[in-house]
TrEMBL record:
Domain HTH cro/C1-type as annotated: residue spans: 15-69
Keyword Protein transport among UniProt keywords: no
Source domain of life: Bacteria
Species assigned in the record: Lentilactobacillus fungorum
Gene3D superfamilies membership: lambda repressor-like DNA-binding domains
Protein name: HTH cro/C1-type domain-containing protein
């Protein structure tokens, strides 16, 4: 039986764009959604995928559907034997 590996899948986000358009600092957004400034920083750099709960908090803060800020990018699928 083989299993698919999805190691290259990514969550793409527009947190930076929404934050800047709203004239917010990373600290202000972090405080508003209950995380550290560092969390916002690494998320904006694409080095951190938020939990579903945090993704919803961010989308709710900006009053937009979650899919306006976060999207899924499918990587190469490989069979693992």
């Amino acid at each position: 039986m083989s299993r698919k590996k999805f190691d290259d899948d990514q969550i793409i986000n527009k947190v930076y764009e929404y934050r800047v358009l709203s004239h917010l600092s990373q600290k202000e957004l972090a405080d508003a959604v209950g995380v550290s400034k560092q969390t916002i920083l690494v998320m904006e750099k694409g080095n951190y995928s938020p939990s579903l709960k945090l993704a919803f908090r961010i989308a709710n803060y900006f009053d937009v559907p979650i899919t306006d800020i976060f999207s899924y990018a499918k990587g190469d699928e490989t069979d693992e034997h």
